Amino acid sequence: MNPTPVNLLDFDVDGLAAWFAAQGEKPFRARQVMRWLHREGCTDFSRMTDVAKSLRARLAEQACVRPPAPISDRVSADGTRKWLLDVGAGNAVETVFIPEATRGTLCVSSQAGCALDCAFCSTGKQGFNRNLSAAEIIGQLWLANRLLGGAADGERVVSNVVMMGMGEPLTNLDNVIRALRLMLDDHAYGLSRRRVTVSTSGIVPAMDRLREECPVALAVSLHAPNDGLRDRLVPINAKYPLAQLLAACRRYLDRAPRDFVTFEYVMLDGVNDHDGHARELITIAAEVPCKFNLIPFNPFPGSPFRRSPAARIRHFAGLLAEAGIVATTRKTRGDDVDAACGQLAGRVQDRSRRIIRMAEMERKS
Ligand code: SAH
Ligand code: SF4
């Protein structure tokens, strides 16, 4: 019986070269095969015409190219496109493509669910299911390029990647780093480090590892300007409080491809949007070169928070701007397909939970 085929999407170039070497193949073949897999989107080994016939035959026997399977594909009125992907055992994750005039950004998930339970996040409220494999992470970019219609002639539609989908990328760092290396590799996607952003709620030791092993652009989910409030909103703050987080941001910047960190700040009505909070943020900005991205809260069923009114968000951004801090307000996109930040997979998960509960009730009756 054939052993389970190896999914080639799980390898970065070095990993594939090592796997080839272990089979007695020339490691340089890895680069050739990578180009077929990632640049051409080829899944049929017999089409890899510049690869030796014997290697093609071996790959057909021992390997496969398996991205996660799409369950649904929805396009919002504003052009945002959202795929729900099956990652097995009743778990689904989401990938969102946001087209803009000068770039196409893909928002990629790193975990099914998330263990960190931030108070305002629907993914966090689902709890943690599991880490995605490197193949499931890079598979989102692989699929998006195919489904968006690019890649046939090596053209790429996705110009930027943000690891801002479901999950905390820095608690799945080995797989995330493998996927990031593929995003950056010229034999795969060839994206520049500045166009690949990892967003974290602040896992300090993992920020240091990312800095050493694969420094890409960094976004940090700040959401509160002091430990008291941040402990409530982003519970991981109890483990890595603000002073440690800001020190890690400064260390990261020595290696980062950009000379600032982006602080994400979800605007919660009456919770973290007072003038005093803006003043505290100005003190933080004096310690870490940064830009702010204000995210209007995206509500979800059962959440106790409300979005700050638009005038309050404008006023808050104005206070930061007066202090010379660049603060942009994120446009909410894809609302009509539940593709906005923090809403990902919430409803699907609720639905699948309901289906499981109903099945259990039927079994018992
Ligand atoms: N786990 C990572 C990345 C995924 S979340 C992190 O927390 O940074 C991407 C961004 O969306 C984070 O800044 C997150 O705090 C924010 N977010 C989560 N829920 C949200 C909601 N309901 N409304 C607006 N932004 C939200
Ligand atoms: Fe996890 Fe990020 Fe959501 Fe917090 S905001 S629960 S870290 S996905």
Summarize the structure.
The chain is α/β, with parallel strands linked by helices.
Description:
The chain has twelve helices and 14 strands. Helix 11 (310-322) links the parallel strand 13 (290-296) and strand 14. It has a ten-stranded mixed β-sheet. Strands 1-2 form a two-stranded parallel sheet. Strands 7-8 form a two-stranded antiparallel sheet. The longest helix has 19 residues, at 346-364. The protein has two domains: 6-64, DNA polymerase, domain 1, CATH 1.10.150.530; 69-360, Alpha-Beta Barrel (TIM Barrel). It has helices spanning 13-22, 29-39, 53-62, 122-125, 134-147, 173-184, 204-213, 227-233, 242-253, 275-287, 310-322, 346-364; strands spanning 6-7, 63-64, 69-75, 81-86, 92-99, 104-107, 111-113, 128-131, 160-163, 196-200, 217-221, 261-267, 290-296, 327-329. It is of the alpha/beta class and 365 residues long. The protein binds S-adenosyl-L-homocysteine (SAH) and iron/sulfur cluster. S-adenosyl-L-homocysteine binds at residues 118, 120-122, 164, 168, 199-201, 221, 264, 266, 295, 297-298, 341-342.
